[in-house]
Amino acid sequence: MGAMxxxxxxxxxxxxxxxxxxxxxxxxxxxxxxxxxxxxxHAVFEYRYVFPGFPSRVEGRDALMALYSGYGDSTVxxxxxxxxxxxxxxxRIVIIEYEVHGQKIPxxxxxxxxxxxxxxxxxxxxxxxxxxxxxxxxxxxATGANP
Length: 147
Prior knowledge:
By secondary structure, this protein is an alpha+beta fold. It is built from 5 helices and 6 strands.
């Protein structure tokens, strides 16, 4: 899927494939042309993995944007695919599986990772996001180590 940089958020272009795949997975459930437009001001994000320098919890849209603001300094995504959308018994919750592909800038290593995100939506905005990823893939891409 081809990412197209949103002129409203040019500083986040390195994440465009992620934004595109998530918005495709949440199509019809959220309002907004861009991922950040679909996030409620008071949203809570939980990252259910341990990765050095990355928080386990972020509160608020502004804090999320601050967290992602330097992403392009370390990683550039060039694609996202393998989208699977699961509907929950709770109509507010959508579970999406997806993969992202790119390159780690400092190491030059390929970055291929898999995610599952459990997304709670209220009033057509993301209010809670619980994220799971392949931490070993991220570690390997960042360090070049192959444990």
